[in-house]
Amino acid sequence: MNDTEQADADFLHEMDVRFMQAALRQAREAGDREEVPVGAVIVRDGSIIGQAYNQVEMLKDPTAHAEIIAITQAASAVGDWRLEGCTLYVTKEPCPMCAGAIVLARIPRIVWGMTDPLRGGALSQFNIVQNAALNHRVECCPGVLEDECKELVQSFFRKKRL
Question: Which one of 29, 34, 57, 67 is the catalytic residue?
Answer without folding.
Answer: 67
